[in-house]
Specification:
The chain is mainly beta. It has two helices and 20 strands.
């Protein structure tokens, strides 16, 4: 597997050249990879007819449809680079969509991802950019709800909490607190589980061996999102945990494009003693992040 590396000396990100656009590694320079890499699926793409998960971070299209969402990204990508940026572009898909990820490292190990989706086809298409990050196994996924309040001072609902047919609130990997939702990745539990929510300040995090990965995206109020209004989704099975952000739904006319931005960061926080509001706040404050 060929890769192109972007680094600022603090962190490093590897993008694949034989398939994609895909980020297959993100971690501190010389340290652990916080992203999943599936060894048996990392050989160079050869135009396989089926989609391969492979691991890492990818740009998908929501709502999730078969076969449209699962278009195989199994051919080489075009890469441009500058001093502190990389831009990875895939060939136009058979349905007319073109996917591109621009990576920029402003310093301190931070990574800014601009996902671009263009319609090169002949017909309008209603889509959302779906940015999925597959995490290395054995960690804890976290996300937060919009600011909480008290009754009767705050009577209006603040956000949806979204379920799938296989969502399970009795799952031993799941913990809900007043402010947060956490989901533990456990290789001994293979069954999938998934939850979604909407938060104006959308974020997800993953704690693995004392290092915290954080990704953030700014949602937009008053517009339509896929999946009953989700700006963030978290999915888990026995092999990985995914942190997923989504853009609003938009009808792309032929020749138009849309963007969705994520901000990534890495932090050495040490372990978390227990899963409760105070301890999660302590962990996030140690990362300089106070949702």
């Amino acid at each position: 597997m060929r890769v192109e590396r972007l680094t600022d000396g603090v962190a490093e990100a590897d993008v694949t050249l034989d398939f994609g656009p895909r980020i297959i590694r993100y971690g501190f320079a010389g340290g652990q990879n916080l992203l999943l890499a599936i060894p048996g699926e990392l050989s160079p793409g050869g135009g396989e007819p089926e989609f391969k998960c492979r691991g890492g971070h990818r740009l998908w299209v929501a709502p999730e449809l078969v076969p449209g969402t699962y278009f195989p990204d199994n051919v080489p990508v075009f890469v441009e680079r500058g001093e502190r940026w990389l831009e990875v572009t895939a060939p136009v898909e058979s349905g007319g969509l073109r996917k591109q990820i621009h990576l920029a490292m402003p310093g301190g190990g931070r990574l800014r991802l601009t996902h671009r989706l263009g319609n090169q086809g002949q017909w309008p298409v209603e889509v959302s950019i779906w940015a999925l990050t597959m995490m290395a196994p054995g960690g804890l996924g976290l996300t937060g709800f919009p600011p909480r309040g008290d009754h009767p001072e705050h009577l209006a609902p603040t956000n949806p909490l979204i379920m799938w047919a296989f969502s399970d609130f009795t799952d031993e990997r799941l913990r809900l607190t007043r402010r947060f939702l956490t989901l533990r990745q456990d290789a001994s539990i293979s069954r999938p589980n998934k939850f979604g929510l909407w938060n104006l300040d959308t974020w997800g995090a993953y704690l693995l061996h004392g290092e915290l990965f954080v990704k953030r995206a700014q949602a937009i109020a008053g517009v339509r999102y896929p999946d009953f209004g989700a700006s963030f989704e978290m999915w888990v099975n026995g092999g990985t945990l995914e942190l997923e952000t989504l853009s609003p739904l938009r009808t792309l006319m032929p020749g138009e494009a849309m963007e969705h931005v994520e901000e990534w960061s890495l932090h050495r926080t040490g372990p978390m003693e227990s899963v409760n509001d105070d301890e999660i706040h302590r962990l996030l404050r140690g990362a300089g992040f106070t949702p």
